[in-house]
Amino acid sequence: MNVDIAIVGAGPAGLCLARALADSGLSILLIEQQPQDVLREPPFDGREIALTPRSVRILRDLGIWQRLGPVDVAPLRSARVLNGSVTRGLHVAPRNMHETELGFLVPNDRIRRAAFASIEHEPRVTLACGTSVEGITLDDASSRLRLSNGSEVIARLVVGADSRFSRVRREAGIAADMHDFGKTMLVCRMALENPHADEALEWFGHAQTLAALPLRHGEASIVVTLKPQDMQRLMAMDEAAFGADMRRRFNGYFGDMRLVSTRHTYPLVGVYARRFIAPGFALVGDAAVGMHPVTAHGFNLGLRSVDTLASLIKQAAADGGDIACAQMLRRYQRMHRHATWPLYAATMAIVTMYTDDRPIARRARSALLRASQALPPVRHAIAHALAADSHGAFSRYRHRG
Length: 401
Prior knowledge:
With 401 residues, the protein is α+β, with helices and mostly antiparallel strands. 36% of the residues lie in helices and 28% in strands. Strands 5, 6, 12, 13, 14, 15, 16, 17 and 20 form a 9-stranded mixed beta sheet that branches. Strands 1, 2, 8, 9, 10, 11, 18 and 19 form an 8-stranded mixed beta sheet that branches. A 3-stranded antiparallel beta sheet has the order 3-7-4. Helix 1 runs parallel beside helix 8 (298-318), helix 8 runs antiparallel to helix 9 and helix 10 (359-374) crosses helix 11. The two termini are 35 Å apart.
């Protein structure tokens, strides 16, 4: 099979890239290990995605946002950061008085379902489900992919979108800096006795990190980060014991807490690829940058990579140029590194500081939270980071060359 672009991985980033390129006139092949029925109706996986206003605009432009139902979207109007036994902490609200939200919360499975529905019947997008890439040969002119079903694909450009543990990234000879935090993250939905007022809570406790993301109907997405052995004990609890334990961990902040979903756990690993490109090859989404969830920017940065790469590809195609030329790929790499590295580095620093349980570190972060609350410029900077709105960043960077 010969195609213009082969996208490996039909997670949210891969699906959104296929959607972004569907009207480019290029032929797109989307390769995914999971069967098509799972892509069409993905199961609940516990993860709620905090979308910035810019990400909402991208999804709306792609026709994906409109496919979400009203019950799928919950407003995020403010955020509060607590440390240890502090009960007030840092409060973050929209900087602009005319804005009412920092962002919106949408279940990961709903985004995946809407994104798949947007490309399922696109004539220029071909799906190769239930198969994986077994080998890859990259070249400036064209690349070859050997699939597990025995077929071979020749593509002008290959894009890796197969998670932060990307196999094709490794096959392409691209190293990645991985940081294993040695922790496990649990995510689930719980009904709360006390209202959350559409406010997200991030609580850096001692030997644990907690978060509650506001959902509709008095529910919240609960995030708990613990050492693996402690997480095993938590997962072994029945629903009643789990609810009581969550109330204790949150110090009664939400009153009684009742489990209303399945529980899911994930290893905490941060990833930053040393390169985002190779000859005839590019990385997007978590395959390029896999963020720690504390700043809630993982999928937002993934969407940014999709938006940037798709814009460059479509411009090259419209100009009759090479959609996989080295100059264009280097430009993509510069742009995405410029967009992601500062936030990735800052997130790593925050996580390191706020998960250090030594007494001196606890005192330092308490002092930092107090100072941040007292200084409006710092507080506004945090609000801007939470609701990062980089509309027009592509055009500004493009004029810089």
